[in-house]
Amino acid sequence: MVEVTKEVISGPVELDVCRKCQFMWFDPGESEAMPALPPNAEPEMHPKAREALALAEIEGFRSRHEPGILDPPDEWWKWLVTMAGYPAEDDPGLLSRKPILTWVFSILIVLFSVLAFGDLDSAVGAFGLIPAEFSRWGGATFLTSFFVHAGLLHLIGNVYFLMIFGDNVEDAVGHVRFAILLIGSILLGDAFHIMSDPDSTVPCIGASGGIAGLLAFYGLAFPHVRIQFVFFVTFLRIPALVLLVIWVGVQVFGVSLQTNGIGHVSYASHLGGATVGIIAWSLWRKDL
């Protein structure tokens, strides 16, 4: 809501106007202070009737512009990404600042990964994080592993998640805090991965540990933004906070598989990154 000053006969009146739907909120006495209707206009409605009509109009607007939980996406590109298995935001609102760091990190990930595709085995061995040798290059592989990916689908998925959720997080916390959040998520995610199997000599690569911190922060900072996705050929729109809880549960289950040598996904690194996102939200939420 924004405040708009309206000059009337009795003096200025402060009105609250919704940026998105343009409806006005009248505090007690403000409606009565507005100018009277011309003589040929319809007679003024009773305040309770006017309130009921306004509520009906708002409900009608909501039903037209807020699709139900099972309704399909309303934009063509959201159809494409959801059918491909990726989530899409329902309507997170406009950004107040350019997500510069989100773009920069996304571009760097693409550049490093594409260059690594030329000799992927060598790149993974050189830049991947190896738990049994985590101090290689003075610990630099904690960060270099973030920029290398195992294939095109791995790269597209992580960059998409970074772009779709990172811009809102950067807009909410600012560039400096965004960098702190992302780098902290990368480092703690790597630390969790090492602790899950300290003797492993298998290199770990990918940006998902760092991005997990952004996802956790997003779910807590924008709990009511609905996320669209396809589940068993059915379109769903679920609040971000609900999906975050489900996602954390999946990661906890995944860790049990990981510790038993099942699968190639580092669920521990996801939980480590998410931990940083939760801590950052608890520290910064008053400033949001």
Characteristic terms for this protein:
54% helix, elongated, 288 residues, mainly alpha, Rhomboid-like fold
Any chance you could write out the topology, listing elements then pairs?
Blueprint: E1 2-8, E2 11-17, E3 24-25, H1 30-33, H2 47-65, H3 76-83, E4 88-89, H4 100-116, H5 120-127, H6 141-144, H7 152-173, H8 175-196, H9 208-221, E5 226-231, E6 234-239, H10 240-259, H11 267-284
How would you describe what is shown here?
It is a single chain. The chain is mainly alpha-helical and 288 residues long. The chain folds into 2 domains: 2-65, no CATH class; 76-287, Up-down Bundle (Rhomboid-like fold). Helix content is 54%, strand content 10%. It is built from 11 helices and 6 strands. It has helices at 30-33, 47-65, 76-83, 100-116, 120-127, 141-144, 152-173, 175-196, 208-221, 240-259, 267-284, and strands at 2-8, 11-17, 24-25, 88-89, 226-231, 234-239. The protein has a 3-stranded antiparallel β-sheet with strand order 1-2-3, with no helix packed on it. Strands 4-5-6 form a 3-stranded antiparallel β-sheet. α4 runs antiparallel to α7, α7 (152-173) packs across α9 (208-221) and α9 packs parallel to α11.
